[in-house]
Amino acid sequence: MNFQTRYAAKILSVGGVISNPTDTVQGLTCLPYEKSMQKMLWLKHRSPAKGLILLASDLHFFYPYVEDTSLLAQIKLQKHPTTYLFNAHHNTSKLITGIFKTVAIRLTDNALISDLCQQCQSSLVSSSANISGYKTATSLLSLTLNFHQELDFILAPRHGNFQASHIINAHTQERVR
Fold first, then answer.
1. φ, ψ for residue 149 (rounded to 5)?
2. For 118-146, how does the pLDDT look when each residue is reduced to its tens digit (9 = 90+)?
3. CATH architecture assignment, domain 3-169
4. What's the pLDDT tens digit per position in 51-67?
5. Half-sphere exposure of 175 (CA within 13 A, CB side)
6. 126 in Cβ contact with 12 (< 8 Å)
7. DSSP code string of the chain
8. By C-alpha distance, which of 6, 107, 119, 112 is closest to 58?
């Protein structure tokens, strides 16, 4: 793990919000701390009603957020990144679930996400790196212009990660997106 990744994990662990490439698009990332998630929503001008996604490299990081953890066994890494909707545990923050009774989770083998999860011993709260209603940032310049130096750290975008994940309801297997 390189210095930048260790530094990003340190920023996350003290409540920071960073931007980093994910297995899909450039994202905004924080740990599931209320103040961090509030900052992320403020940065994006995003309604808390929409909820946020949890990313992790290991299923055990999702246990605190899912009502029936035995259902997590059905998640398998897919060729195309896939986000699953599960019934949320009653203690899951409304900033994560929004107005829904579900939690959106995505298991990934992305090396950076895996390193951050392991360093922080947590799932990561994630959302695309954009102001609500606008295109996702794909360069350091667009991140700087969009977020005006308000991000606590930026791991530069990588070329080729510009496709959103599929979304599947884990209980019905219905593809939502």
1. 65, 15
2. 999 999 999 999 999 999 998 999 999 99
3. Alpha-Beta Complex (3.90)
4. 999 999 999 999 999 99
5. 5
6. no
7. --HHHHHHHHHHHTT--EEEE-SSSEEEEE-S-HHHHHHHHHHHT--GGG--EEEESSGGGGGGGBS-GGGGGG----SS-EEEEEEBPTTS-HHHHTTSSEEEEEE---HHHHHHHHHHTS-EEEEESS-TTSPPP-SHHHHHHHHTT-SSEEPPP-TT---PPEEEETTT--B--
8. 107
Residue matched to tokens 């998640």 = 75
Long-range Cβ contacts of 83-86 (<8 Å, 24+ apart): 83/53, 83/165, 83/166, 83/167, 83/168, 84/167, 84/168, 84/169, 84/170, 85/167, 85/168, 85/169, 85/170, 85/171, 85/176, 86/62, 86/170, 86/171
Please state, in angstroms and rounded to a whole number, the distance separating the CA atoms of residues 42 and 160. 27
Cα distance between residue 143 and residue 96, in whole Å = 23
- Whether residue 20 is predicted with pLDDT greater than 70 in this model: the reply is yes
Q: Which amino acid does the sequence have at 161? A: N
